[in-house]
Structure formats: structure tokens, C-alpha cells
Amino acid sequence: MEGDHPVKAAVEKLKDTVTGGQGPEEGVPGKPGSESPTVAEPTEPRVPLPPKADQTGPKPVSPTGTPSRDDRAASAQQGEWLTTAQGDRLYDTDHSLKAGPRGPVLLQDHHLREKITHFDHERIPERVVHARGAAAHGVFRGYGNAAGVTKAAFLGEGMETEVFVRFSTVLGSRGSADTVRDTRGFATKFYTTEGTFDLVGNNIPVFFIQDAIKFPDIIHAGKPHPDREIPQAQSAHDTFWDFVTLHSEATHHTLWNMSDRGIPRSYRMMEGFGVHTFRLENAAGETTLVKFHWKPRLGVHSLVWEEAQIAGGVDPDFHRRDLADAIEAGAYPEWELGIQTFPDTPEQTFEGIDLLDPTKIVPEELAPVQPVGLLTLNRNPSNYFAETEQVAFHVGHLVPGIDVTDDPLLQGRLFSYLDTQISRLGGPNFAQLPINRPHAPVNDMLRDGMHQTAVHRGVAPYRPNSLDGGCPFTAGAETGADIDVPVALPASRKVREAPATFDDHFSQARMFWLSMSAPEREHIVNAYSFELGKCYEQAVKERGLQSLANIDPDLCSQVAAALGLPAPAPTEPLRDALPSPALSQVGRAWPLDGRIIGIVTDGTDDLAGVRAVRQSVLDGGMVPLIIAPAGGKLDANGEPLTVQRTFATARSIEFDALLVVGSPAPGADALPARDAKAKTATGPDPRVRLLLDEAFRHGKAIGGWAGAERVLEAAGVPADAPGVVLGSGGAAVLDEMRELLSQHRVWERFTTGPVG
């Protein structure tokens, strides 16, 4: 983006609202409400608090898509008094109606029954897959350069469309951790003027299966074992590897999942893909085949395995917290929507790649991704259940100019998504829930059913009719009708088969492996070693090694050594494959917006320098968190600095980089009996040493001044190691660290083994 720095401007604008008037040093996210609470329970009646500055609800429209004169607060709770669901004011909600103070509860207690009955039904069936989700509102702005291939209005130049985006994991339940190794969902609901368009994708461009009829199999295999309901939200178990090693079309996706792509650093730093090939149609009726891509402005970055494991215990909400905090801090996540286009030929192939095979990609070096619009997420939901949980996506929600292809996985999804929403949301009227309502007029002739909230008029919900004046009328192409693209179908016979081009299951997996940098290959070796090492059955491990042998002998031999098994020979010839540099996360520089910088101090050394570097972090569009021995304020004699984390509560996974002032002495709570991280109270605080040790192992930039080399030495961090910056002042150290931060990690710090 050109012009003023968007994050700096947003941070300045949000200072007062985010900080609750406590001063600019509080310009960090995480404040629970729009106002700071009092210590004593409030007793003076007042209307509900407004949402925080970063929050909003669905746009007010009627169940049939008509813009409402109500503001967004109209669907929120109203008034200062507690009431029943019917608006009857209540004088007590702490005691059941009883026959005397010690008597039995009376059946006539309507408030008790309403309150408990509603509680008993507060949970709807969770999604079978993608149950663990986080979401945000935003806006999509079209660039206007896609008109040559599609007539979709929302891609027009300067056209702004409200969106709702939901990110998710696949395998885990709603209560599972965010940082598990798994595929992530990236689903976008565009509330376009022509109706709702849902782009329901993943952070991995290929899928485990080629045909939707296998979807229950892969999910049943990946889910917890049905006898014990373990393990939760992970693939490191026998049933998953039993299936994917027997079903070799899963090889390519599995390799992506075992790479760093399987554990994103943040949803903000996660690529998205439409997975399938779609068909576009322009105003002249010409068609083009296309693959959709979401390119994050901050680049594609991942956690290392140990970080993911620590986060699963320390902060299982790591990704959803990161997304909400970034939006609250004004570091609005952004992605460009890009398209790869291909001629719509009868063969539906490109450079020998079958475009209908969802286990294949087209390398960007062969078909560059062309940006066609910008997505910005700038508002958090105001209610998780009403918005994030009840949002319903469907690959069949299309608009004129975008159509499906005969990809057999996509064809099955066209049935499955609608069927799922009807079951999960209690009936066919899920589109009338506020988060799902189209922002275009709706006149569908659908009537009744569970949860019908529209109040339809007229007597003739059928066509043709005269009793309702003939309304609704069918539309023509000239009035924006969505007309199915007339695709010629070859004369054929009914079979349960796949084309021969679907039979190659290893060449693209080999291309992916050859495209990885040395550290990324090490991570893949480690992932396979861990996952197969958690399997019980020897046959499953041996079959897994056979799959790896068909990808690359070096990969197979390294994993075999970890498992203590011989490396098998390939059963298929190794395919020639050119690396695709676009597949690697290493070697490029990215913006620093929203990076989280931990500033470690014991409050005794150079607080003026702490204040200065904190401001430099804010000015750079990043988020500073001060880490000190105890909470509260630092520098009571000057402008106070608020502590966001203590030595006891901070953990390395929270931060993209660390700045250390001096050599912090042990805090008063550095007692092993109180904090297991405080192993010894001699020398610098042991929690700080652990913080630095982990950050160093995970390849993060570390800076320090005012004698920080003493604590680095105690933590085993060499002062001359790559990515360690020492200087005379915090601002100068931060300036030297910017380039390190732009590369996400200090990759030189990762030693590699003999993987070829």
C-alpha cells in the first residue's frame, strides 16, 4: 500500500480506545472490553457497553437481503434491565422459585425453566471438519484487471465488497489447540451485489483425495481412533498413516502437511488456495479455467515444531488470539486475491498437468499468479457463536462469471456442503441467519421450514402465477442472471473410474521436496520421523517409508534411520522434476506490520531507552510488549511504562524478536516451588534465560544493550551468533534487526544434517 503507513495511522487512532485512556504506552491489544471495569461491582443501572473499536456485527439486512435502517447494534442486547427472552423484567436471577427458603423448587418457575432450557441448547452440532475456527469481517477491493476473463461484478475496478473470512483447522474439535500439525481452512464469504459468493479453500493447494467419495475415508482415518477418542487434532497415529500409505494419491498433500506449511506462524501469514480448477466466463461468453490464490502481504511463515508444541500447552488459542489482537492493534491482515489462468480446452490440461486433478498444482513459474483484488480484515466479530460458529459456506454459492468444473472432488462438495448446513444449523433456512444473509435482494419462493424468520407475503409461491401479479420473474442475461456455462459433454458411459492422468501420485511430491531449502527439508524429515514414530504397527511404518522412497531416497533414508528400519528401494522410477522456488518460504523479505517485539527489563537499566525503543516499535507498525519481573508500572518518577508480561507469564512463542536491557536479576517470585521455570535463583533471572534460549533455538532475532551480553552468556546464546545484535542503545539495535525480522527467521542458525 502506498502513502501513509496504515498500521501507524491505525495505532494512533486506536490509542485512546485500546488503552482505555491509560496513556500511549498501553497501545497493545488484548483489552477485554470497551471500558475499564471498576474494582467494586457496578450498581448504577446503565445501558450495555458499546463494542470495542475493532468489533462489529453482521451488516443489518433483512432475511431477504433488504438493507435495514437499523444500525449494527439493533440485533444486540438492549436496555439496562435484565429480562426474560420475551422482555419481562426480572428482579432476581440467582435463586430458583422455591416453596420456602429451604423448600423444593416449584415447577412454575418460568425463569428457571427458560434459562436452563436455553443453556441446554446453546450448542449446535459442531462441524465434522473445520470445527476449530476464528474469523473476522473485512472488505475486498477489486483491481478491475480481471474483466477480460470474468464478468463477476465484485472484481470490477474500485468495487468494494464486504466479506467475512473464517480460518480453521480440519481434524480437531472446537476445544482443540490451534497450533497442531494440520491443514487449515481459508473460507471467504463475499457479500456481492449479485448475491453471495463463497470461496472455500485451504492453506494447502492440493488435497488428500481426487474424488469426493473418499472424503469420509480420509476424515475417518484422520480423526481420533473411534475406540478411545484419541489422539485429538493430530495425524500422528496409525489410522491416518494406514490410510495415506495405502492410498498413494494422498502422498502430495501429506508431504505439504509434513512441511512447515502444516504449522503456520499466524493466519495473517498463511497462503490460501481454492484447491480446485474453476471456470470463468467474461461478458462475451468466453471461458477460461482458473485456480484461485490468496497471497498474504506479510509473506508465508510458519512455526518450528518446538514452538508449536509449547504453544499447544501455554496458549492453545495462539492463532485466534493473534488474529484478533492484530486487528485490534490496527495491524490489519491483508491478502491479494490472485488467479492462475489456463485455456479452456477440451482436454482441460496445462503443460501436461490435469487441471481436474485436485492432488496437482500448476507451478507459478509456468503460470504466474495475477493479482485481481485486495482483501483487508479490519473488524473482529462481536459474538463468536452468532458469527464465527453459525457462518455457513458452500462451494455452490456462485455469482455470474464464476462456475465450477468437473473436478470429481468439487462435484461432491457441491452436494455435501448444503447437506451439512441443513443438518448442523437445524433446517433449510440457515441463509437467514444474520451472518449468512445476502446483501442482494432475495425472492426465492422457498417457504416455511425450521427457523423461518422472513415473513413472506403473497399467496402464490410458485411459477407461473397470476395471483401475485406473476412475481417473481425469471431474469435474462441482460439483467444479471447467473446462467450456467454451456459446456459440451463427451459421449460416454457410466463408470466408476478415473482418467489415466490421475495415476501419477509422486512426481509433484518430488517437485515439492526438491523445492525446499535445507532447513525446510530438515523440518520435513523431523515431521515424518515424529509422525511415523508415533504409529504402533510396524507395517504402517514400513509402508510409510515405501512412499518416501518413491519421493526421494535421501528423505527416505533419514526417516528410516530415525525409525530404526532399513530404507526400501523405490517401487516406481523417480520422476524428473524442476524445483519451484515459489514453494519455499525462505529467501525473501516481507513487511514488519504487526510483528510482536518483547522488551525485557528489570526496571533498573535505561528506562529512557526502553521508552524510546518502545516508540520506535510502534512507529514501525509493530507491537511492543514490555516484560518485567512484576506487573504494574515502571519508572514511577517519569512517564510510566506499563508492563504487559512478567517473567513468570512470558514465553518465547509470543514474540517474533526479543530486546533485552541489561542483565535482569532474579525476580521476587523466582522460586522453583512457585514457578517450575525458575530452576535456580543465582545469576540473571532463569525465566529470562529460558526465554532467550528458546528464542535462539527457534531462529528469532535477539538484540540487547546496557550489559545484555551477561544474560545472553548465561542463557548460552553466543554474542557473535547470526541474528544476535548488541549495541549502545535500543533504537539503534532495533534498526539493525529490521532486516532480520523481514526474513521472519535467522535461517543460518538452523544446522542441517546430511539430507541431500
From TrEMBL:
Residues 1-88 are annotated as: Disordered. One of its GO terms (molecular function) is catalase activity. Its EC number is 1.11.1.6. The active site is at 130, 202. GO terms for biological process: hydrogen peroxide catabolic process; response to oxidative stress. Decomposes hydrogen peroxide into water and oxygen; serves to protect cells from the toxic effects of hydrogen peroxide. Belongs to the catalase family. HPII subfamily. This is Catalase. It comes from Streptomyces venezuelae. The lineage of its organism: Bacteria, Bacillati, Actinomycetota, Actinomycetes, Kitasatosporales.
